[in-house]
Design a protein that fits this description.
alpha/beta, Rossmann fold, GMP Synthetase, Chain A, domain 3, nine-stranded mixed beta sheet, 27 strands, 24% strand, binds xanthosine-5'-monophosphate
């Protein structure tokens, strides 16, 4: 039997990333829920326990079969997985001893096989609130971050565990650590080759669709372009119908570019719909008996996402029917990626994962269609960089293969809507001022945004920083953007003022909603950001319209990140990833759009603690 490594999913955001990295290291892997019976794991040569949103000391902690620790199989615990191992073997984990969300330096014991070949100082990604206080019996501490236990090891049991995440790219030598676990602790010898993804995908489309019709939603990004291209290879052209929906929340000139490019790919049945009014002004059923909308009146990020996701399907159904397709008898294809499902808290992908945000392609009505076997998702097992590889293998234009992602809800999740300001309470202000002291200039802004911390969703305050405008030391600011949320749990994102050296008065919140004018304002600001800042080293960049200002009603935040799988990301830094001149030019152009735009900020926060999008 082939050598295999089992991955037990405790609900972590990165479980699929672990699976993928293990396979890329040439070891066959399989994911199981953490509750799997030990019996099923006895033929595996290694077991990895993932991270997860729960706390081991909590009643809600996922149950596991204690027999897994009697199998004598080498193990690696990651984050929650380490805490579970530590508790199981008699150690103690305590809550909120020190929260760490972001990249930190750790000191590791290089005699431990996990760190073989590495130096003692390592940069790793931490994302946790709980920490090991008392070490488990038979384990030694093999890593430390300023007093917090970062890793443990039992040579006798061949069990290693790390508080950080070796599977993500922000842990610089994480791949070496995983390889050491697989090859030196588990002693895996075989090298497993990845199956040909394109052939297997085409085969599966043919088997499922047969001679039925498929309606594919094409947003213009690489994900849906790959789905459409695979469908065209698998099925007769006349059975593939592509629909591009312009919901009024697209980027400048985006829909024209997309439709031209899709025609070039050989799509003959392409329908473009301009349905801004429907998206902005309709009330819809977002789940059984629950109605919401219209979008133009909604301010809650999750509800906005659900409204947009639902209207996508309503519009698609109407369009299909006009094309003479029986929608209930056809397949719906979309470019869903694995992270979309993980972040949406899809129970089929992970029993314990926390919902970070509902992606437009995993709303209630899609889940029902998926349960009925009517949804084709060619990319559901892939991350963004894998989809790009497939795009290139399929011969798609480099402009599409390398295209920066644009989320389905488009500018809808970049207009930060507001009716009432989020004013910090006195104790938060007091804690903030104490921490700030003379370290930096900043205030808690009257708005919130979404983040991901310790595998959990957060919806917390924004911290605004200032001092030297575009000439700031952005590396220092990025470090502050990790330190501030770590010290102050009610903040998950920091943005630096780049349109001046300080706000010219108190920053006040103003009402903001989605409408044609605000979408237009953001579209122009977004164009200023992308046309000046985007380059091949940046993974995604865009503008966000903020409901606050001193003199004008609104402000704009610029965001640019570097990542390949989008599960973690670092903020792209002016002066390092793009020029300060480009930053200055973007700021000047944004300020010139409208007197309603007051300040311009640059978001310097990583993921975690923030997410890439603000909502
Ligand atoms: P976050 O904000 O979760 O984003 O860090 C990770 C990546 O996913 C994109 N994103 C979406 N893509 N539908 C999509 O197709 C969505 O609803 C959605 N929300 C976020 C985001 O732009 C980033 O590239």
């Amino acid at each position: 039997m082939a050598e295999r490594c089992a991955i037990l999913d405790c609900g972590g955001q990165y479980t699929k990333v672990i699976d993928r990295k293990v396979r890329e290291l040439g070891v066959k892997s399989e994911i199981f829920p953490i509750g799997v019976s030990a019996d099923k794991l006895k033929d595996f040569g290694g077991i990895i326990l993932s991270g997860g949103p729960a706390s081991v000391w909590n009643d809600g902690a996922p149950k596991y079969d204690h027999g897994i620790f009697e199998l004598g199989v080498p193990m690696l615990g990651i984050c929650y997985g380490m805490q579970l191992i530590n508790e199981h073997f008699g150690g103690k984990v305590i809550p909120h001893f020190k929260t760490e969300y972001g990249c930190v330096g750790v000191n590791v014991d290089t005699d431990c096989l996990l760190y073989d070949g590495l130096t003692a100082e390592q940069t790793v990604l931490m994302s946790h609130g709980d920490a090991v206080e008392v070490l488990a019996t038979g384990f030694v501490k093999t890593g430390d971050t300023e007093g917090v236990c970062a890793s443990i090891y039992s040579e006798d049991r061949r069990i290693a565990a790390v508080q950080f995440h070796p599977e993500v790219e922000l842990t610089e030598n994480g791949l070496i650590m995983l390889e050491n676990f697989l090859r030196k602790i588990c002693n895996f010898k075989e090298v497993y080759a990845l199956e040909d993804r394109i052939d297997s995908s085409i085969r599966s489309i043919k088997e499922r669709v047969k001679d039925k019709k498929v309606v594919v939603l094409v947003s213009g990004g690489v994900d849906s372009a790959v789905s459409a291209a695979l469908l065209l290879r698998a099925l007769p052209n006349e059975n593939v119908f592509a629909i591009h929906i312009d919901h009024g929340l697209m980027r400048k000139n985006e829909s024209d570019f997309i439709c031209e490019n899709l025609k070039k790919q050989g799509l003959t049945n392409l329908l473009r719909l301009n349905v801004e009014d429907k998206f902005f002004n309709t009330r819809v059923e977002i789940s059984d008996g629950v109605f919401a909308g219209p979008l133009s009146e909604e301010t809650r990020p999750e509800i906005k996402r659900q409204i947009i996701g639902r209207i996508f399907i309503d519009v698609t159904r109407e369009a299909a029917e006009k094309l003479g397709i029986d929608f209930d008898d056809a397949f719906l294809a979309q470019g869903t990626l694995r992270p979309d499902l993980i972040e949406s808290g899809n129970p089929d992908v992970s029993a314990y994962a926390n919902k970070i945000k509902t992606h437009h392609n995993d709303v209630d009505i899609i889940r029902k269609a998926r349960d009925a076997g009517r949804v084709i998702e060619t990319n559901w097992d892939w991350h963004k960089d894998e989809v790009r590889q497939v795009a290139r293998m399929l011969g798609l234009d480099e402009e599409i293969a390398a295209r920066q992602p644009f989320p389905g809800p488009g500018l809808g999740v970049r207009i930060i809507c507001l009716d009432e300001p989020s004013i910090p309470d006195d104790s938060q202000t007091e804690k903030f001022n104490k921490f700030k002291a003379d370290r930096f200039n900043g205030v808690i802004a009257p708005i919130k945004s979404v983040g991901v911390q310790g595998d959990n969703r957060s919806y917390s305050s924004l911290c605004v920083l200032w001092g030297e405008g575009c000439e700031a030391d952005f590396a220092k600011t990025a470090k502050l953007s990790t330190d501030i949320p770590n010290a102050l749990g009610f903040i998950n994102r920091c943005a630096y003022l780049v349109s001046g050296n300080k706000p010219e008065g108190e920053i006040k919140a103003h009402p903001l909603h989605i409408c044609h004018e605000t979408a237009e304002l953001l579209r122009e600001a977004d164009h200023c950001v992308t046309s000046n800042i985007m380059n091949s080293g940046i993974s995604q960049c865009f503008a966000v319209l903020l409901p606050m200002g001193v003199k004008g009603k609104y402000s704009v935040a610029m965001r640019a990140v570097v990542t390949s799988d989008f599960m973690t990301a670092r903020s792209a830094l002016p002066g390092r990833d793009f020029t300060v001149e480009a930053l200055k030019k973007a700021v000047a152009e944004i300020k010139a759009i409208s007197p309603d735009i007051d300040m311009v900020f640059y978001d310097t926060t990583g993921k975690p603690p923030a997410t890439v999008e603000w909502e």
